[in-house]
Write a structure and sequence with these properties.
Blueprint (H helix, E strand, L loop, with lengths): L5 H28 L12 H21 L2 E4 L4 E4 L6
Antiparallel strand pairs: 1-2
Length: 86
């Protein structure tokens, strides 16, 4: 697994940040044009929270089973293979 220092992470974020900001701005603009509110109007219900938690756990467990997500018990490190650099 590749180790990254904080300055490396920050420089990577700065390089990709303009693209992300542009995508978010376009999405917000389109959402406003279509009449959708950008703010959450109500708190999540307990059933909605349970459903979201279930989906997150299921997705995580499937990733572990398929090998897309790897956990090293000795180092106590969790990483996603898709984003790991060789």
């Amino acid at each position: 697994m590749r180790k990254m220092s904080l300055p490396e992470i920050q420089s990577k974020l700065l390089r990709s940040n303009p693209d992300v900001n542009l995508a978010v701005a376009k999405f917000k603009e389109k959402t406003i044009e279509q009449g959708w509110s950008l703010s959450r109007n109500r708190p999540r219900s307990s059933d909605e929270i349970k459903a979201l938690n279930y989906m997150a756990r299921y997705t995580f467990q499937e990733g572990l089973r398929s090998g897309a997500i790897v956990y090293d018990k000795e180092k106590r490190v969790l990483w996603v293979e898709q984003y790991a650099k060789s």
